[in-house]
């Protein structure tokens, strides 16, 4: 069983992968992935939105339930979607609580800012473990103006590391650091006690996370820092085309798929 405590103690890099449905989560779990993240990247990967902003708490509740139903060993972490936290304090706590209490997550992830330090402390105190998220925070796409690399000056990097440390002090059990120069990823791993899990943050972080659609080769495009370890897109296309051809040529269904009662009709 992976827990918020065990990933802090493990010697090998923490493996983390997103999943949004039960079959994918079951495969990740069976493969020994440590942390299954129900990312709000479900907005792009599954719903076809241009960003994560339209994703609702209900969307995350349903996806988290599906993932939690399928996972036996991994730690299930769920993203709090845009504006489900940080607007109203008690609503933030209730929303985070629902992802554990009703949907079965073990922890929540929040895109970090100065406004999430106190929230992290309050959630942790209530028994809701919090994973922080610094660097590129896609819910801020409109204020940042794109999905560009973050922490590219010494001053910005120091500010990011300070924010990360403030969340560690507030009780965060781990953090994601996204799309930063590799030396910033390395510094986060060095300077923090809690595991810094990187995505586009270089090889020296305490773990790695990818969007599952990117990792298995299902996404149409992948970010430059990702890697497709398979060609699920090609496999799916081939299977769908073969199905279409078999129906059009009446090769499917064949005798073995068909049943007769010998009825005289
Ligand atoms: O939503 C997501 O998939 C994420 C990871 C990229 C860390 O937040
Ligand atoms: Na996310």
UniProtKB/TrEMBL annotation:
Binds 1 Mg(2+) ion per subunit. Mg(2+) binds at residues 40, 79, 111. GO terms for biological process: coenzyme A biosynthetic process; pantothenate biosynthetic process. 3-methyl-2-oxobutanoate binds at residues 40-41, 79, 109. Its cofactor is Mg(2+). It holds the Pfam family Pantoate_transf. Pathway: Cofactor biosynthesis; (R)-pantothenate biosynthesis; (R)-pantoate from 3-methyl-2-oxobutanoate: step 1/2; Cofactor biosynthesis; coenzyme A biosynthesis. It comes from the Archaea. Its EC number is 2.1.2.11. Its main location: cytoplasm. The active site is at 178 (proton acceptor). GO terms for molecular function: 3-methyl-2-oxobutanoate hydroxymethyltransferase activity; metal ion binding. Keywords: Coenzyme A biosynthesis, Cytoplasm, Magnesium, Metal-binding, Transferase. InterPro entries: Pantoate_hydroxy_MeTrfase, Pyrv/PenolPyrv_kinase-like_dom, Pyrv_kinase-like_dom_sf. It is found in: Cytoplasm. It catalyses: (6R)-5,10-methylene-5,6,7,8-tetrahydrofolate + 3-methyl-2-oxobutanoate + H2O = 2-dehydropantoate + (6S)-5,6,7,8-tetrahydrofolate. GO terms for cellular component: cytoplasm. Belongs to the PanB family. Homodecamer; pentamer of dimers. HAMAP family: PanB. Catalyzes the reversible reaction in which hydroxymethyl group from 5,10-methylenetetrahydrofolate is transferred onto alpha-ketoisovalerate to form ketopantoate. This is 3-methyl-2-oxobutanoate hydroxymethyltransferase. The gene is panB.
């Amino acid at each position: 069983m992976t827990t918020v405590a065990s990933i802090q103690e493990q010697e090998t890099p923490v493996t983390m992968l997103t999943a949004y449905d039960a079959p994918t989560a079951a495969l990740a779990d069976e493969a020994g992935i440590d942390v299954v993240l129900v990312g709000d990247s479900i907005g792009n990967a599954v719903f076809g939105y241009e960003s994560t902003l339209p994703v609702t708490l209900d969307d995350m509740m349903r996806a988290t339930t599906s993932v939690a139903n399928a996972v036996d060993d991994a730690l299930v972490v769920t993203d709090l979607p845009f504006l489900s936290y940080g607007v109203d304090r008690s609503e933030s706590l209730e929303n985070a609580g629902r992802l554990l209490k009703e949907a079965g997550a073990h922890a929540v992830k929040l895109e970090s800012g100065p406004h999430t330090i106190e929230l992290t402390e309050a959630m942790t105190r209530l028994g809701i473990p919090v994973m922080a998220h610094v660097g590129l925070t896609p819910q801020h796409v409109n204020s940042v103006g794109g999905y560009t690399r973050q922490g590219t000056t010494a001053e910005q990097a120091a500010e990011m590391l300070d924010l990360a440390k403030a969340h560690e002090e507030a009780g965060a059990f781990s953090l994601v650091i996204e799309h930063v120069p590799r030396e910033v990823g390395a510094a986060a791993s060095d300077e923090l006690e809690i595991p810094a899990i990187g995505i586009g943050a270089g090889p020296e972080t305490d773990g790695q996370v990818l969007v599952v659609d990117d990792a298995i080769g299902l996404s149409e495009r992948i970010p430059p820092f990702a890697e497709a370890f398979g060609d699920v897109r090609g496999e799916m296309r081939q299977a769908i085309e073969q199905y279409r051809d078999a129906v059009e040529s009446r090769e499917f269904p064949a005798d073995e798929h068909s049943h007769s009662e010998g009825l005289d009709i």
